[in-house]
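Tutorial, part two.
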Amino acid sequence: MRIIPLSEGTFTIDKTKLFVPFDETTDNIQSRPVGSLLVEIQPFVVVTSKDILLLDAGLGFEKNGTLQLHQNLMDAGINPSEVTKVLMSHLHKDHAGGVGVERDGLGGRLSLPNATYYVQQTELAFAFEKGFPSYMPDELVCLQNSEQVTLLDGKGVLDDYIHYEITGAHSPQHQVFWIKENDETIFFGADDAPQLQQMKNRFAAKYDYDGKKAMELRQEWWKKGEEEKWTFLFYHDVKNPVWKF
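Running the prediction step on this input gives:
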């Protein structure tokens, strides 16, 4: 399987939940509000024998009238129309901002015209219930009542090789994915397992829905990943987007 990180850049985020661009060559983290976290925003493409998969959809920012997600795909040699499946871990705005695109005269539509989007049905309902600032309901309307969207219920397997399950760790309906092909396993833990250092150290985050559970799951996954030689994808890691045992 081929893995392509689609970096959207480095940002700081504080209790306001606003993502502010950060340039390590010119910006100073100490000048940002106390408690600011430094994070990468990084969807992934995984090319398998069956699919071109997109794992989460980024912030949805545009540059020069082009969705950054689209530009990053094209820079990687992939036409957005070639993506076949979009696997959504959860719908927080930094993971789901790019699910749709809006154009004058056309209204809102899903950003990848030929892809099937896989979303937990309880997460979609929760996003509209919870709303701003973690979720941006106006940007998620395109997921409702669309023939391109498959709503998942709990845990299961897609096409015999993509395994998913709800963890309820980072957020109440958060899900994670294992992609298994030809004796290779790629694990995408999204915000349950966002950075390499959180896998290597016992760390319970206050921003998680269930920080203790997230910490315990990371330890469990890291141990099993080492034993079974998984490849880990880290959505928020500035320096280590991909880690393979």
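DSSP finds six helices and 19 strands in the chain. In part three we will examine how such features are distributed along the chain.
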